[in-house]
């Protein structure tokens, strides 16, 4: 076995490297390396000061105006509603993909599904505003998707 290893090493075109050579290389790299000496606190201090002066410049009148803007009443979905929607949409997606013999994410991917759940479109026009849904997808899958979404509303 020893003879075989020696023969392979002798026939090899790669030059031999021993621990001494590797140590010399490592020491050479360490000599060339210079650590970065950036003071990040100083670098970003000016930006922080600018931001704080902008906040101070807001007048009390503007703050009152901002606070008095009415917020629309939105029915918040519970996590169980969201879980149900995810399940229903995934099962619909799987069923459709098998019928059409395509990948499930071609119909809509998980990110688009979460955008659907967040925006909760109520019409085909509002479904067009959901990321990833163009005219073709809305025409093809829109009614079914809206039915699934309306089950929770």
UniProtKB/TrEMBL annotation:
Coiled-coil blocks: none
Molecular function GO labels:
nucleic acid binding; nucleotide binding
Family matches, as SUPFAM superfamilies: HRDC-like
InterPro entries per UniProt: HRDC-like_sf (IPR010997), HRDC_dom (IPR002121), HRDC_dom_sf (IPR044876)
Domain called HRDC: residue spans: 79-153
State the residue spans of region: Disordered: 55-77
Family matches, as SMART domains: HRDC (SM00341)
Q: What is the protein's name according to its record?
A: HRDC domain-containing protein
Source species of the chain: bioreactor metagenome
At the highest ranks, the source species' classification is: unclassified sequences, metagenomes, ecological metagenomes
């Amino acid at each position: 076995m020893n003879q075989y290893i020696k023969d392979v090493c002798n026939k090899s075109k790669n030059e031999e490297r021993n621990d001494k050579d590797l140590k010399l290389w490592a020491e050479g790299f360490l000599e060339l390396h210079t650590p970065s000496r950036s003071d990040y606190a100083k670098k970003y201090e000016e930006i922080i000061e600018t931001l704080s002066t902008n906040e101070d410049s807001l007048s009390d009148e503007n703050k009152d105006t901002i606070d008095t803007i009415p917020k629309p009443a939105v029915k918040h979905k519970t996590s169980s509603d969201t879980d149900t929607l995810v399940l229903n949409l995934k099962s619909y997606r799987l069923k459709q993909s098998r019928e059409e013999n395509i990948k499930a994410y071609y119909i809509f991917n998980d990110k688009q599904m979460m955008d659907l759940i967040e925006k909760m479109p109520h019409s085909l026009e509002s479904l067009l505003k959901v990321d990833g849904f163009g005219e073709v997808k809305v025409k093809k899958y829109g009614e079914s998707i809206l039915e699934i979404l309306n089950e929770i509303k």
